[in-house]
Amino acid sequence: MARQALLLERAPDPQAVPAADAAQRAHAWEEQRDLAHRCRACPLFAHATQTVWGEGPIDAPLMLVGEQPGDQEDLQGRPFVGPAGRLLDRALAELGWDRSVAYVTNAVKHFKWVPAPRGKRRMHKTPAQREADACEPWLEREIALVRPQALVALGATASRQLLKRPVAVLRERGRWIERPDGLPVLVTLHPSALLRLRDDEQEVAYAAWLDDLRLAGRHATAGR
Ligand code: URA
């Protein structure tokens, strides 16, 4: 409970960003979002329902970056609303945050999928490096407009796109790593990786994941 109170006290303060500046950035953010909806920079748009842009306050102190939208995200046009998003919501709630503390987005804005061998299910396929690179300008524009204090890379694709190098998530997780532009990035597991673990492994892995997120929240909101 004490921990929850601490984090809630430090929830982002809308006054921390000058109104005109925040309004200008919000306007620019909408323009970028609309442009991204027409993106044809890689072939992924052809089989996706829509571009899934990031979501959250323009002055969020923390930006959480996933890999790419999943099936539910592709249909609803919003990031992290499927099973991985529900685990993320549970973690944020346990930390005393709600989604408004963080801006949530993905390294790749279109759902890459292959048909399941049987049935109509669409199965997630990891984006190729060239597809992630085609999306890089959108992610970098989101970072430039939201100006978070810190970034959380959920999984290998986000880590590589944010740090501009391959990242061994299990080896590098849980500590701050500086980007070329000086922004701190905390690497951690993708929630989908936790969901794939056996029940007995999941509990320990989930607790360690919460510790990573807690560390990120502390840093991003320090001094607010
Ligand atoms: N996985 C992601 O990386 N992002 C989402 O938005 C959903 C699932």
Would you mind describing this structure in some detail?
- With 224 residues, the protein is α/β, with parallel strands linked by helices.
- It has one domain (2-221): Uracil-DNA glycosylase-like domain (Uracil-DNA Glycosylase, subunit E, 3-Layer(aba) Sandwich), CATH 3.40.470.10.
- Helix content is 46%, strand content 13%.
- The strands form 2 sheets. Strands 2-1-5-7-6 form a 5-stranded mixed β-sheet, sandwiched between helices.
- A hairpin with a 5-residue loop joins strand 6 and strand 7.
- The chain is globular and about 55 Å long.
- The two termini are 20 Å apart.
- The model is unreliable at 1-14 (pLDDT under 50).
- Bound molecules: uracil.
- Uracil (URA) binds at residues 66-70, 73, 79-80, 82, 84-85, 106, 192.
- The site of uracil has 13 residues, from helix 4.
Shape: globular
Largest beta-sheet characterization: 5 strands, mixed
Distance between the termini: 20 Å
Helix percent reads: 40-55%
What is the H level of CATH, i.e. the homologous superfamily? Uracil-DNA glycosylase-like domain
Helical run tally:
9
**CATH domain topology:** Uracil-DNA Glycosylase, subunit E
- Ligands bound to this protein structure: uracil
Estimated structural class: alpha/beta
Q: Could you say how many structural domains there are in total?
A: 1
Total number of beta strands = 7
CATH architecture: 3-Layer(aba) Sandwich
Widest sheet: strand ordering? 2-1-5-7-6
User: What is the H/E order?
Assistant: HHEHHEEEHEHHEEHH
Query: What fraction of residues sit in β-strands?
Result: 5-15%
CATH top level assignment: Alpha Beta
Radius of gyration (Å): 17 Å
Q: If you average the pLDDT, what whole number results?
A: 91
pLDDT < 50 runs, ≥5 residues: 1-14
